[in-house]
Every structure is written in structure tokens, then in C-alpha cells.
Amino acid sequence: MRKHLLITLSLLFAGFILTGFAQNKKVNMENQKETMLLIQTDLGDIKIKLYNETPQHRDNFIKLAKEGFYDGTLFHRVIKDFMIQGGDPDSRKAAKGQMLGSGDAGYTVPAEFVYPQLFHKKGALSAARQGDEVNPKKASSGCQFYIVTGKKYSEGQILNMEHQMNHGKVEQIFSNLVSKNTAKIKKLRMDRDKEGLYELQEELIAEAKTIADTMPDFKFTPEQVKAYTTVGGTPHLDNQYTVFGEVVEGMEVVDSIQKVKTNRSDRPEEDIRMKVTVLD
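Below the sequence we write its predicted C-alpha cells.
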């Protein structure tokens, strides 16, 4: 859990730098019409809108929908109080019980984090992706997506998350500095220079504290607090996965899907197929 929070914290720091840009970008996007799409499923229809603030994800999703890429594919991964995921092309003809999730469109989409404006509230449409170990730039899958269901948090839990993120600030900065000094550390180890390693460690700790002192403490925005305490969501995914749209109608269908019975790999026991159509 601590490691997960530290990873999230480093991404949130990047978010502070981008906030001013995102606010200016929002003004430019306000006059643009948002694209609506319909996801027809075996359990009902879900209407979504795509954000203009994430143009690469928007255009890619529209392109795939118009090509019929999603038609006949499954919601292949469903986790109650978390999310429902689909878009794997291999799911179209998958055998019953077959493990899914590795299919792709043959390309990725660069991450488009617009934080804190766009976040993982309930109903958020976000792009799936491979893990950080093989995908350090957090590029999105070219086709797989998920819709957030999540859960509600109390104000006390939100405050506790903020405290944990801020508490690990120095440790995370220190970790980043260690990564930047990998070559130097490797040489000191090869030379068996324990004193040199200790001195470098102390230097990096001091530098981390200095940097941390110049950074504002992390705090959820009022919009995030309201959403996460009233409708719910998955705040731990913020600034890790690109949010590029949201459900505008049919959230009850999403809730029905998240409650279906699944197997050990989180695949619904009864297939739930989709068809995606661009409305305007």
C-alpha cells in the first residue's frame, strides 16, 4: 500500500506543474461540442461523452467506434466496487472461460493527464494500460477501456489519504534522486566504497528535504472531495490512467454489469457483449 501511494504521489507532483496549463486549456475547450457515443450491451444502453481536453484519446475512440472495432467484444473484466473493463479484440471470439485482457489494437496512445480537472469519479471513462514496469510513460492501450464504479469515501478517509501522500513526500523524492544517480551508486558499490555510499545517501536525503520544502502539500480539490464522498470513485487511480470521458446516461446499466457473477480471472460467467456507435 505504501509503495502504491508513493507512486501516486510522484504523479500528483507532475499534476501540480500541469494544473495551470490545464486551466487555460479548459477555457479553449469550452466552446467545442463534446462527442456522444452509445454503448449498447446485453444488459442495456450506456451513453457516454468524450472530453475535448484529451483529444488523442477522443479521436482514437471515435475512430475505432466508426470502424466497428468494439462491436461484438465483451466486457471481459468486471470487479464490483471498482470498474468494468472492455475493448479486448480477442474477446470477440473467445471460448467460454478463456482468460482475456492481452489483446490490443497494435499501438498505444500517449498519456493525457488533465489533473485535477479530470479524475476517477464514478462513471468516469478511462483508458486501460500496461504496468509501470514495462510502460514507464504510462501510455494507454490503443483500444481497452474501463468505466469506474468505485465506492464512496468518508471525509475522514479522504483526509487520511492526503496525510499519507504528504507523509511519504520526502521518501518519494529521495527515491527519484536515487534513480537519477544509479550510475554513481553502481560505481561506488563496485569500488566497495561504503563511506562514499553513505555520504551520497546523506546528500540525497538533504536534497530531497530541500525539494520537499518548496512543494505544496497535496490536497484533493473541493470537486474531488464532493464526488468521492457522494457518488464515489477510485481516487488511487488519479494521474495514473488517462480519464477521457464519462457516462451521461445508463449508469444503472454499469451498476448491473458490475454485479454479475465472475470467475477467478474476473471475467463474467455469462458474456456481456457491446456495440459502440457515435451519436454526433
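DSSP finds eight helices and ten strands in the chain.
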